[in-house]
Amino acid sequence: MVSYRFCRPDDIPLLTDYVNRCCTPEPALTVEDFKREVRQLNVWCSSCMIASEGTDPVGVLIGAKRPDSNLVYRLGVRPEFRRQGHAAHMLESLKQKLIKLGPPDIYAELPTEMTEALACFEKQGYQHVQTLIDYELVIPLEPISPENQTLIENPPLDELLEHFSPLDQLSWLRSKTALQNCADSLSVHAIASMERVEACLIAKPAPLEGTHELLGLRVHDPVEASFYLEILLRSFCQPTRLPVRIPRLSPHEVSPSFLEKFGFKRHGEYIQLHLLAKA
Predict the structure, then answer these.
(1) Does domain 2-103 have CATH number 3.20.20.80?
(2) Residue 115's Cα: distance from chain center in Å?
(3) How many Cβ atoms sit within 10 Å of the Cβ of residue 85?
């Protein structure tokens, strides 16, 4: 018989093992990786669940939690136990818990090719919010002039974020909270006029050597400030930083067509889903 239970912080080694055996990430997750996700993505052990048959792993749900919303960060079931309702049971258990404890908003971000998983979420009542796009650039952009280079500043992250109104419907890992959680590892590049910060680029060295991720691309005005964002991109996307990846970009952040004209290629797509937990 399969049993289910929510977890505690001292279950992190067990949760790490279950993720590796039920979700098979590449490369394999380590305990230190899991702890990093706790810090940076607000993974919440009491929102994580394991399903087991005796001592054998069956499935795992990894949940993240912030004051205003939740995220189903990972959900996996071992192949021999699939299509038996275990994933649906874990999603329903999390929903019932959040009906009582809140917050009621639950999100998920799934690769578009995971059609069976998407169908499972949809059967639980999750609604399609938007498509998030991964981009990659492998060819350097034309450098900017020394004159334009002098326009670029490197303000502290918190100071920069104060100049931009919060955007709704961003990926969990691109939100203001996620950026603040890993502020020490980010580099901030911005251009300001006399009136305001016109555009900014927030970057993070990626796990793969020589690869950088752009976790923030913001403009004050999508039409007037595109010139400034172009300067930031051309300054940053040079050979020593390639390839450059932009994970899970929302069209609310920057227009996909703006990036594609510079040679950024689509590298993957995710469906963002939302459920309001209610009785």
Answers:
(1) no
(2) 19
(3) 13
Phi first, then psi, for residue 64 (nearest 5°) are -115, 155
Fold of 134-269: Aminopeptidase (3.40.630)
Examine the pLDDT at 208 and tell me if it is beyond 80.
no
Closest of 79, 94, 66, 85 to residue 7, by C-alpha: 94
Q: What pLDDT is attached to residue 221?
A: 79
Q: Is the dihedral of CA 99, 46, 1, 90 positive or negative?
A: positive
Report the sign of the C-alpha dihedral through residues 216, 221, 225, 226, in that order: positive
Predicted TM-score (pTM) of the model is 0.93
Helix, coil or strand: residue 245: strand
Q: What is the pLDDT of residues 234-272, one digit of tens each?
A: 999 999 899 999 999 998 888 889 999 999 999 999 999
Q: Which helix (H) or strand (E) holds 120?
A: helix 115-123
The residues spanned by each domain of the chain are: 2-103, 134-269
Fold: same for 2-103 and 134-269: yes
- Quick check: 103 and 95 in contact, CB under 8 A? no
Each residue's pLDDT tens digit, 160-172: 888 776 666 899 9
Q: Which of 20, 27, 45, 26 is nearest to 35 (CA)?
A: 45
Spell out the residues 6+ positions from residue 209 whose beta carbon is closer than 8 angstroms to its own.
none
